[in-house]
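lol so apparently i was supposed to do this last week
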Amino acid sequence: MVDKHIPDDTLLYLNNVTVSFDGFKALNNLSFLINNRELRAIIGPNGAGKSTMMDVITGKTRPDTGDVLFNMSKIASPGETKNLFGRSRLNKGSIDLTQYDEAEVANLGIGRKFQKPSVIESLTVWENLELALKGRRSPFESMFKGLSSTGSKKIDETLEKIRLKDRRDLTGASLSHGQKQWLEIGMLLLQDPKLLLIDEPAAGMTDEETFRTADLLRELSEERSLVVVEHDMAFIKALNCKVMVLHEGSVLAEGSLDHVQQDQQVIDVYLGR
Ligand SMILES: Nc1ncnc2c1ncn2[C@@H]1O[C@H](COP(=O)(O)OP(=O)(O)O)[C@@H](O)[C@H]1O
Ligand SMILES: [Mg+2]
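anyway here it is w/ adenosine-5'-diphosphate bound
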């Protein structure tokens, strides 16, 4: 049952979440909390359950057991409560994410970035962002062609954030791998997520892009929570945040990077390999 003592500042709460595939437990009593405006890094060997954890949060996979709660009590404005699709809230206004499908979870304010960017290569950076913004407009608003001035302003602000202001009129195809990843993050930002889940953003990036991405994610966590899965330890170090180590579907260790790097179990199952 739902723990009645979830701390007030909690945005995401997983408690005893188990997911089995043909008897194999991809997640095994997984429990953790993410705070509002927290940046959290997740590491762990292949097969540890990192992607399955994201699948459970985003409504792609239903857990066999356990709670997956998204606490909107501190952030929901009266307008946003309409987005609950008629299902009731739990304690303190929390939403039981296991009751929603992927599209609904996205609308509740959880964005997910997969490893492979879904930028449209033939469109410009600006047009990609415009499409992402229009995706959230109501049918009534979409009847009008073009963008409102608030819409253009939002795109300008996003371009600045994702370091692509001087590339707004270039096509997606002309961007480097790192710039495509930033554009995709920008597209997600235009949906105003409260929580962003990001799978291996630094893979394939140059060293400079890797550090700029860490800076970007740290900046973004001033306004929302981010959960970042990565293998690149230099990138994790640059994120300078709490690290959680997953192993066999459970949390093996958590704390500062220094702390988990000195944990003998973490060295044995992951870092020492
Ligand atoms: N749809 C599925 N069907 C069967 N097994 C799966 C499925 N998804 C994941 N698994 C298994 O669950 C375990 C965890 O996988 P995953 O969450 O992808 O790990 P990670 O992302 O940490 O590498 C792996 O052993 C994987 O083979
Ligand atoms: Mg994975």
